[in-house]
C-alpha cells in the first residue's frame, strides 16, 4: 500500500472544486506594468501600494548593506545574527508608529505566530474576526487558548462573547486593520473601547495599512486618531514598504517580553541586512514623500469613480483602501474573468475559497499606476 496515495485524490478534489492554484512567473522588477510569462501586462495584483519595491533607493540601500554585511545574517538575533541595522530599523518603526519600542521578525507571518503564542495560552481566550489573515488565525490556534471567531466587524457580537471574559485568565482580541481580501477597515475605535471595558489586550495587524493610511502613513491606527491608545501594532515590511520582514510595535515592556518569549523570533535566523536596509530606506521615503500616498488615493478614487459611472452593475465589496474586490458567483466564474482580464493585458487574478468565503477578483491600486492603466482596466471590465 502507498501511504501517499491520498495526495493525488486530494488534488483531484481541489481541481473539481475549481480551487486549484499554480504560480505565474513575473520577470524583471516589480512595477505598475510587469512581464508575466513573456507578456507585458498592467499589474493590479501587487501589494506594492507605493511602488517602492523597485525603487532605486531601496535597491541601493540593500546593495550597500550586502556589500558590508553579506547576504545572510547567519543566526538568530540572540545567538549571532544581531546587526546594528536591525536596531536602526526598529527605531525607525518606533518613530513611525509612535510607540516606545519595536521588534523586527523575519516575516509578518512569524510576527503574528510568535506574538500571539507568547501572549496567551491554554487558560486564556482569543476573540478573532472571522475574516482575519491566516497568520492571525494560526497564531491563535497554536497558542492553545480558547479561540472564538466573531462575525466580521460585528462589535455587538464581540461584546456579547465577552460575557465569558471572567472565565479566563487573559483575553486577546485580534484583527486585521485592513482586510486584505475585502478592502474594508476594522472598527478600531469601538474595538479599543471594548478592550478597555473588558480588560482585554488588542492586537491589530497593519500589514495593508502601513504606508497607506493616516497623515504620515502610520496606518489605520493613525487614520482613526488612536495613536495614543494602548494596543499592540503588528505589520509587515513586504507590502507598501517594498522589502521583507515583519514587526511588532508597542510598549517597551511588551518588546522586552517578546524577546524572551516569542519562539518565532528567538529560534529564527535574523532578517537579512539587505532586506533590513531596504525597509529603513522605505520608511524614510514614506515620511519624506507624502505625495506618493496622495497619488495612490487619487488613483483609488479615480478607479472607483469610473466604475460607478460606467459599470454601475458591477458588484463591488465595500472598501476604504486601495484594495477593490469584484464579487462573483462561483470559483469557475472568477477563473474565467481572471483569464479574460489577462487576455486584455490586465493582471488581476481570481481569489477563491478556501482563502475567501466567496469568489472574487481582487484589484490593488498603486501610486505608480497611470490614468491610462486604470482606464484600460475599466474597459476590460466592461467586456466581462
Question: What's the layout of helices and strands?
Answer:
Blueprint: H1 5-16, E1 26-27, E2 33-36, E3 39-43, H2 56-69, H3 77-81, H4 84-97, E4 101-105, H5 108-119, E5 125-129, H6 134-142, E6 146-150, H7 155-161, E7 171-176, H8 188-197, E8 201-205, H9 220-223, E9 232-236, E10 246-250, H10 252-261, H11 263-266, H12 273-288, H13 290-310, E11 323-327, H14 331-343, E12 346-347, E13 350-351, E14 360-364, H15 371-381
Parallel strand pairs: 3-12, 5-6, 5-7, 7-8, 8-9
Antiparallel strand pairs: 1-2, 2-3, 4-10, 9-10, 11-14, 13-14
Descriptive overview:
It is a single chain. Helix content is 42%, strand content 16%. With 384 residues, the protein is α/β, with parallel strands linked by helices. The chain folds into 2 domains: 120 residues, Aspartate Aminotransferase, domain 1; 233 residues, Aspartate Aminotransferase, domain 2. The strands form 3 sheets. The protein has a 7-stranded mixed sheet, sandwiched between helices. The chain has a 4-stranded mixed sheet with strand order 1-2-3-12. Strand 8, helix 9 and strand 9 form a beta-alpha-beta unit. The model has no long low-confidence stretch (mean pLDDT 97).
**Average of the residue pLDDT scores:** 97
Along the chain, the helix and strand elements come as: HEEEHHHEHEHEHEHEHEEHHHHEHEEEH
Helical/strand content category = alpha/beta
Corresponding CATH superfamily of the largest domain = Type I PLP-dependent aspartate aminotransferase-like (Major domain)
Low-confidence stretches: none
Instruction: Predict the CATH topology of the largest domain.
Output: Aspartate Aminotransferase, domain 2
Percent of residues in beta strands?
15-25%
Q: Give the oligomeric state of the chains in this entry, treating copies of one chain as homo and distinct chains as hetero.
A: single chain
Rg over CA atoms: 21 Å
Basic shape:
globular
Amino acid at each position: 500500500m502507498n501511504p501517499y496515495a491520498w495526495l493525488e485524490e486530494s488534488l483531484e478534489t481541489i481541481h473539481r472544486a475549481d480551487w486549484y492554484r499554480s504560480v505565474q512567473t513575473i520577470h524583471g522588477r516589480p512595477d505598475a506594468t510587469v512581464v508575466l510569462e513573456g507578456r507585458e501586462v498592467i499589474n493590479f495584483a501587487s501589494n506594492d501600494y507605493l511602488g517602492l519595491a523597485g525603487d532605486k533607493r531601496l535597491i541601493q540601500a540593500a546593495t550597500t548593506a550586502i556589500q558590508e554585511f553579506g547576504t545572510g545574517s547567519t543566526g538568530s538575533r540572540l545567538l549571532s545574527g544581531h546587526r546594528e541595522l536591525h536596531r536602526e530599523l526598529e527605531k525607525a518603526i518606533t518613530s513611525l508608529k509612535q510607540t516606545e519600542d519595536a521588534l523586527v521578525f523575519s516575516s509578518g507571518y512569524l510576527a503574528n505566530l510568535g506574538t500571539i503564542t507568547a501572549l496567551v495560552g491554554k487558560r486564556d481566550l482569543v476573540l478573532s474576526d472571522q475574516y482575519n489573515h491566516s497568520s492571525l488565525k494560526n497564531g491563535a490556534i497554536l497558542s492553545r487558548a480558547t479561540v472564538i471567531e466573531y462575525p466580521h466587524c460585528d462589535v455587538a457580537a464581540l461584546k456579547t462573547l465577552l460575557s465569558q471574559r471572567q472565565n479566563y485568565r487573559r483575553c486577546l482580541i485580534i484583527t486585521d486593520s485592513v482586510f486584505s481580501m475585502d478592502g474594508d477597515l476594522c472598527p478600531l475605535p469601538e474595538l479599543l473601547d471594548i478592550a478597555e471595558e473588558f480588560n482585554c489586550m488588542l492586537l491589530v495587524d497593519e500589514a495593508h495599512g502601513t504606508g497607506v493610511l493616516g497623515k504620515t502613513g502610520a496606518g489605520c491606527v493613525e487614520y482613526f486618531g488612536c495613536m495614543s491608545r494602548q494596543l499592540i501594532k503588528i505589520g509587515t515590511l513586504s507590502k507598501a514598504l517594498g522589502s521583507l520582514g515583519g514587526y511588532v510595535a508597542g510598549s517597551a515592556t511588551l518588546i522586552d517580553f517578546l524577546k524572551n518569549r516569542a519562539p518565532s523570533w528567538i529560534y529564527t535566523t535574523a532578517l537579512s541586512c539587505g532586506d533590513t536596509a531596504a525597509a529603513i530606506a522605505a520608511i524614510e521615503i514614506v515620511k519624506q514623500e507624502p505625495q506618493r500616498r496622495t497619488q495612490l488615493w487619487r488613483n483609488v478614487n479615480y478607479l472607483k469613480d469610473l466604475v460607478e459611472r460606467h459599470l454601475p452593475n458591477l458588484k463591488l465589496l465595500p472598501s476604504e483602501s486601495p484594495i477593490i474586490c469584484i464579487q462573483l458567483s462561483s470559483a469557475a466564474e472568477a477563473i474565467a474573468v481572471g483569464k479574460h482580464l489577462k487576455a486584455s493585458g490586465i493582471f488581476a487574478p481570481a481569489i477563491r475559497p478556501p482563502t475567501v468565503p466567496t469568489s472574487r477578483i481582487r484589484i490593488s491600486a498603486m501610486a505608480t499606476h497611470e490614468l491610462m492603466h486604470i482606464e484600460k482596466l475599466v474597459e476590460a471590465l466592461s467586456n466581462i
